[in-house]
Amino acid sequence: MTLRRRIASLLTGGRRAATDSAPEAVTSRYAPEVDGEPDPGEVVWAWVPYEDDPTRGKDRPVLVLDTDGTGWTGLMLSSQDHDRDAAEEARHGRHWMDVGAGGWDPQGRPSEVRLDRLLHLERDGVRREGAALDRQIFDDVVAAVRGLPR
Known about the structure:
globular; about 20% helix
């Protein structure tokens, strides 16, 4: 376990936190399977630390982009509408994309995915599968992530 992950684990009371990954690591292939295992294209639930205070965070939906040997790479979702403050968000380097509603939100609220904050999820850090994203929306998200200025 890396020092960063060990610190995150200590700060979160042992909960497995998502950690930020390098944006250039985005590779993906749409491959959802209803098998209890997170797959690219699926939305899962995991504890994600806040950027400004990694000792705090919340359990939230995360779109799985890819798998790797120690877990998954993904992007967090939010039911908050960032279109209203898009200019302010972009000024702070935060970029969002609408992905619509899905089975990951029991209230059926539309969601947005944050494109600029790539997360690494530990194998034991995923709580449950939520649903699969539509193939075209998934492809659009991946293209948007790859198109962000670096």
